[in-house]
Structure formats: C-alpha cells, structure tokens
C-alpha cells in the first residue's frame, strides 16, 4: 500500500484578511521574487488526496461522510491511471460549504500532482497530466513573473470566491512547500452558523445541471 502523505498547511500572504491567530502568516514575499508563478482561484471544498489504491481528506484517517461518496466513486474510474507512488491533490467540491457553486465543470478540481520522489510537478506538467486524466483545474487569475503590486490588487469577488493561491510555476520539493505556495483568503471566510460536516449535505451545481 502506498504511504499516505498529509497535505501541508498553506501560509497566508501578508495581506490576507482571512488569516486567524493560529494560521501561518508570511512576513514578506521574497520567496517569489524573480520567479514565475501561477495564481489560481482558491476553491471552497474539502482538501482531498488521491492515490492509485486509496484516497483521504486532509486528515489521513478521515472517516466516511456522505459528501465524500461521489469522489470515492469517481476515484475508482481513474485510480488505475495514477502511477504507483504518485498522488493527486485537489478539492472535493460536492458539498456546499461557505461558497455556493452553480457552474462547476466537475465535483473535483485538482491543483497539484506529486511524483514518487515527493516532488510537486510544474504547473505545465500538472495541467498536461490532468488533461489526460480528465481532471479540471481551478481558474487561473495570473501566470507570469511575480508582481506583488498586481497580486495585491487582483479583483476578487468575495461573494463568490474564497480567495486565491500563489504557487511557483516550476517543480518544488515537499520540504520546500512553505517557500513555494501561499494563499489569500477573504475576511470572515466561514459564513455559515454550522460546520458543513454536521449540516445536511447540499450538493453544489454542475454546469449544464448534469450529475457528473
């Protein structure tokens, strides 16, 4: 059985209004200076990791929950295509959390692909693999040389977006995650009175209103 690896905590950008007292907040963005980056929408789902022989949520011992039924069934259709020792990380978007989606292309959006050496593949490689596997990726808001002023002034509709994620465009090691990825989260992101895990599961909507 492939060893399960927990997805790391993503540090907040210095100007992220959604950072809480127990979050990691970057002092500056020197780690991105002079480098190619990809900024994509941060999807409001459940962090999920897929292997060829299993899957799990952020917690490695995550138990069954009705919101995970779809992703478990879907995983069975492509698990044999995932190389041994590799893993796909993304968002299980089946259940509504704080953001309601009405035009999803799928209930799973992948954002990173890791090989057997525990290296996160480049964004270009990731997109190529995901295209072959039929995996959707979050909308890209910017791709190019790091520009902090541009990043700070991205137009984010916080009514329909949780935030955005910045990652290095090139490959990076698991040990370098905290120096390679950062996020911006809207203020008071959780806008529901009850945690989604304990509420009735309400599915998000797919584009075309199909049941994929």
Automatic annotation (TrEMBL):
Keywords: Ligase. It comes from the Bacteria. One of its GO terms (molecular function) is ligase activity. InterPro entries: Cell-binding_unc_protein, RNA_ligase_dom_REL/Rnl2. It holds the Pfam family RNA_ligase. SUPFAM superfamilies: DNA ligase/mRNA capping enzyme, catalytic domain. Residues 36-185 form the RNA ligase domain. This is RNA ligase family protein. It comes from Candidatus Thiocaldithrix dubininis.
